Amino acid sequence: MLPLLRDSGVERLDGVVLDLGVSSFQLNDPARGFSFRGDGPLDMRMGQHGPTAADLVNTLPERELADTLFELGEERLSRRIAKAIVAERLQAPITTTSRLAGIIRAMVPPDRSGIDPATRSFQALRIRVNDELGEIVRGLEQAARLLGHGGRLVVVAFHSLEDRLVKRFMAEAAGRAPGPSRHDPAGLLGRGAAEWRLLTSKPLRPTPAEEHANPRSRSARLRAMERLDGTEAAA
């Protein structure tokens, strides 16, 4: 973000909006390998570089694969799924979205929510393939550096992992993060004046009308903060 703007002569911004959702056009294109709803190559890369989801599924050790599904997809049956994947890849490499989805569905019973059993595992692989959480942190840091006094940062997240990163980042910027333990020497240093003000004490959620018009908005969570000027920060 920073190099692109500076190459265009932009040093400061009045506002930044980060929409952390995946493009519907990408999800709906079977050739990109993001979706379990159709059959396509097991790719999931946003660009054309680095390992694909198929590379991870076919090479990661069972424990690392299970940890990935649990930590990035919050899949509670991650160990069962990883074991099944490893057994299946011994028979033949897993290279398509439909085959991977079938393996997962055989291990995860459907729940009452109607969410496909493969959803969390596909999310986890996509996040890891693209280092999405790392990209979010880097994007937040760069956006904050670019915003001038009164500038606002607005972020829309779509799942709890993203939202926790945004919440923590904004809380720390606004001086709302929990202090260090009383046994931690860092607590003796005190805190500097906060340079940001939270504009959303809790994330804003879509209204029923918005969800009806755009069902994919149902999990959206919006948070925002504003940079203070020197006088407000000192006060």
- Give me the CATH architecture of the largest domain, please: 3-Layer(aba) Sandwich
SSE run? HEHHHHHHHEHEHEH
Strand segment tally:
4
Largest β sheet strand count, sense and barrel closure: 4 strands, mixed
Number of helices: 11
In spatial order, strands of the major sheet run 1-2-4-3
CATH 4th-level superfamily of the largest domain: Vaccinia Virus protein VP39
- Regarding CATH, which class of the largest domain? Alpha Beta
How does this model look, in words?
- This protein is α+β, with helices and mostly antiparallel strands and 235 residues long.
- It has two domains: 2-21 and 132-234, Vaccinia Virus protein VP39 (Rossmann fold, 3-Layer(aba) Sandwich); 33-130, Orthogonal Bundle (DNA polymerase, domain 1).
- The protein is 45% helix and 12% strand.
- The chain is built from eleven helices and four strands, in the order αβαααααααβαβαβα.
- The chain has helices spanning 2-7, 24-27, 53-59, 62-73, 78-91, 97-107, 119-130, 132-146, 160-173, 208-213, 230-234; strands at residues 13-19, 147-157, 196-198, 221-227.
- Strands 1-2-4-3 form a four-stranded mixed β-sheet.
- α4 (62-73) crosses α7 (119-130).
- The chain is elongated and about 65 Å long.
- The mean pLDDT is 88.
